[in-house]
Each structure stands twice: as structure tokens, then as C-alpha cells.
Amino acid sequence: MACFTNHLVLVLSSSAAVLLAVVLGTAASGAPPSYCAVGKAIPHSPLSGCAWYVATRSCDMAVSMLPVLKETCCGQLEHIPAECRCRALRVMMEAPLVVGADTGAQRRCRAAQPRFAPAVVAAGECGLRTVHGWPFCNALDAE
């Protein structure tokens, strides 16, 4: 009986250690919490102001409204919890704005937007903390 009890304690201790390692590994990986979902911490049509700002900046459009677009974008991002900002930008970029008259310009613009979008949180742009703890998002496909 004592052998069985010792074995049971060993199995339970091992299981608890594995569970703790999984939990800590997930937290350390920078993965956003489960509440960072569309309809929860991220609005259903997220960051419309950021979509215009990202398109304007990445598609080399000279727009006098750029400071207003940036301010609107940063304001929208501020209302999203820090842990969810990178994911919100990724969701926003699932449907990049099509800007440009010819097909080639549209293709270049569509490709440039996801490359610029992670930089919106950076110090030179909005300077907002993210899931990583500082103003930084990985490439959007890595979040």
C-alpha cells in the first residue's frame, strides 16, 4: 500500500510540474490572453482610424490629414488593452485597404501595409505598451 501511495504522489507531483511548466511557458511566450478576441477586448471592426493611417503611411500617399489620422489611430489603440494591441493590429490587417489607381500600385500597397502595421505601437509612432511589455509588435504573422 505504501508503494502505491508513493507512486501516486510521484505521478501527481510530475503532473503538477508539467502543468506548471506549460502555464509558465505560455505566459513567457508573450501569447496574448484569451480575452484578446474580436467581440471581447477587440471591437468587431477594429481600428478603422489605424487602417487609414497605415494605408496612408505605407502607400506613400501625401495627405495633409496625416497628423489627424495618426492621432485617431493612437487613440483607438489606447482603448485596447496593452496585451491585445498586437492582435488587434493583426485582425485589422486581415482586410487591408486597397489604395492606388493601377493594379501594380494596389498590390504594392497591400503588401506594404502588414509590414508597417506592427510599427504603429513603436515609440516613433504611438509609443504604446503591448503584450511584450514595451512599444513593440512582432511581424503580424508571428503574434
TrEMBL record:
<dbReference type="InterPro" id="IPR016140">
    <property type="entry name" value="Bifunc_inhib/LTP/seed_store"/>
</dbReference>
<keyword id="KW-0732">Signal</keyword>
<feature type="domain" description="Bifunctional inhibitor/plant lipid transfer protein/seed storage helical">
    <location>
        <begin position="36"/>
        <end position="137"/>
    </location>
</feature>
<dbReference type="Pfam" id="PF00234">
    <property type="entry name" value="Tryp_alpha_amyl"/>
</dbReference>
<feature type="signal peptide">
    <location>
        <begin position="1"/>
        <end position="21"/>
    </location>
</feature>
<dbReference type="InterPro" id="IPR036312">
    <property type="entry name" value="Bifun_inhib/LTP/seed_sf"/>
</dbReference>
<dbReference type="GO" id="GO:0005576">
    <property type="term" value="C:extracellular region"/>
</dbReference>
<keyword id="KW-0964">Secreted</keyword>
<protein>
    <recommendedName>
        <fullName>Bifunctional inhibitor/plant lipid transfer protein/seed storage helical domain-containing protein</fullName>
    </recommendedName>
</protein>
<dbReference type="GO" id="GO:0004867">
    <property type="term" value="F:serine-type endopeptidase inhibitor activity"/>
</dbReference>
<dbReference type="InterPro" id="IPR006106">
    <property type="entry name" value="Allergen/soft/tryp_amyl_inhib"/>
</dbReference>
